[in-house]
Predict the structure.
Amino acid sequence: MKDRQLHQTEMIWTPAKINLHLEILARRTDGYHDLETLMVPISIFDSLSFTATSDETLTLSCVWEPGIEARQNASRQRGVESPWEPLPPPGQNLAWRAIATLREEAQIRAGGHLRITKNIPAAAGLGGASSNAAAALLLANRGWDLHWGTERLAELASRLGSDVPFFLYGKPAICRGRGERIETLGTVLPLHIVVVRPEQGLSTADVFRCCKVPQRPRSCEPMADALRRGDRTAVAAKLHNRLQSASAKLSSSVVRMVDVLQQVGGVGYSMSGSGTSHFVMCRNHRHAQTVAGRLRSIGIGAVFQTQTV
Ligand code: C5P
């Protein structure tokens, strides 16, 4: 470690994402699906910091935000499911695995401490774990003074999870292949979005296992065009998620969610990723406040008033 400069890196905010369009193109022989999806980062954030150390220990502290733990306990006491699932043990934490893999591939002797405070619900289709993993790679790359370029990091990221490369770029993008081939879209108009994560979550693998490959896949170009033109009405009209019916087969929460979202007065709604989170598109900030208020009063899960970032 003598020549390597260690940096104490800063804390960063890691965003969630939603899928404005998600189409399945084919089932693959490696257990994955080829897809085309258009994802945008949104303003629900976890926070993550990484401190590089000169010993070889990699440690992780990962906790829910304090307010969330209180809500989890309250659900437990009432004997109902909580939208805030228990966090996985450190060995299964994707961000921790990301930096362990980076260290191995870079063949360095170094350690570090990763600290994550979570706010993004898990098993939700919001990409929280993938976002943490991408941020951990970026910070460890700096903290360990590795100078890997984005493309080299993205190759490693794609082996960790299909959504991880998207978060390395952190911009609205069309994602193809398993989700790891990224075409960024540049700046797009801000969208006012309300996200709701019902009490029940779903495993991504279970949802993909139940999905059907359509005979005539829907292209994401009309959605990309609508975004580039800044046409919110067209964006709302073109929302599409092919995994929706698979998730509805697996979770009564998803079926109920659709009933509720039809009645809350948004300009459009869809499911994010493999669910169970859904989102409502709104005209502006004030409209989003109204929609979020309605959803909170129905009491259908965790509600977030957000924007694209
Ligand atoms: O890539 P990731 O680990 O997030 O994927 C979790 C699971 O979701 C995979 O094991 C696979 O079963 C399914 N999946 C898929 N096709 C994709 C992405 C994920 O079938 N494009």
In short: DSSP finds eleven helices and eleven strands in the chain. The pocket of cytidine-5'-monophosphate is lined by residues 31-33, 35, 161-163, 178-179, 204-205, 208 (CB under 6 Å). The CA atoms of residues 23 and 242 lie 5 Å apart.
